[in-house]
Amino acid sequence: MKGELSELEFELKRLLTPKPSKRKRKGKGKTKRPEEPRRSTKSELAYGFDYDISTSKKVKSRWGDKYNIALYGRLGLHCYNFQKGTNYRFVRWQKYSTALTADVDYYITLEAMDPARPKTVFGHCDSVFSFQTMLSDAGRTDGIYITWTTLAARGKCKEALDDEFDEDTIDDFYKSGVLKWLSDEAMAGDNKKYYVVQESELRENDWLQLFMEIGFFSKAKRRLGASPPLEIKKVVIETNEEYITEAREKLKAKNAIYYISYKYIGDPSSVWAGDHKSILRKTMDGKPGHMCLEVADDEE
């Protein structure tokens, strides 16, 4: 336990130290990830997922309950669902390894399931399968408290990763380092760029709950050990592109900014009790398994 705490303290110090650049650029100022070593006996094992990049030792299953690892895994699974049109659900994470580059990279193996598949006669679900996601945590930058980039989201396999997020494909509108809460005047002035998510859609799109949770994780300065009791109140989606036929198309936008209002509904004596707001920005470079999610810094 003692070693685990010291590891967490080191990780937090590294991630929470502000970096001067606003957004990471492809190939600029980035420490190159170690190349995959040649291997023969490990030919059936996935680089990073099944054996540690630094030591080449096999990554052991832990079936742990680290909350941040679960969040990383859930985000990777959401990226896959978004791109493939599936509705796979996170069950639990199995194992993970880390690699230190310019960021902190997490190679996570988890269990996912397809809720659409029927259960067996014994009530067990036979649709559970192994899923891999790789997430790069860039820590804190100017105006942004969290920058998480999924660089792999796939069923368990041993294929090499494309771990370069191509910033050149992202519109400059989504590259500003400062995110401010929407004013009523802004919404009224150009409503084709904004969409207020309907109550029924909040229930249908449970990934909005995940985004809310990540926003609160940022607000709590990453110091949460379990999923908090939160209730989503309102979500406004902003895109630089106007919708074509229906405003609800923005729920499917590859690049968007989310203004989420929610409430902590746990212990009323908690310091977190009451209403909260979070701003998140999602960008995608078009590559399979790639999605970047940023959370605005409350202190800015």
Automatic annotation (TrEMBL):
Question: Which intervals carry biased composition (Basic residues)?
Answer: 20-31
Against InterPro entries, the record matches this protein to: MS5
According to the UniProt record, where is the region Disordered?
A: 15-41
Could you tell me where the Basic and acidic residues compositional bias lies? Answer: 32-41
Looking up NCBIfam families in the UniProt record yields:
A_thl_para_3677 (TIGR01572)
This chain's protein is named: Uncharacterized protein
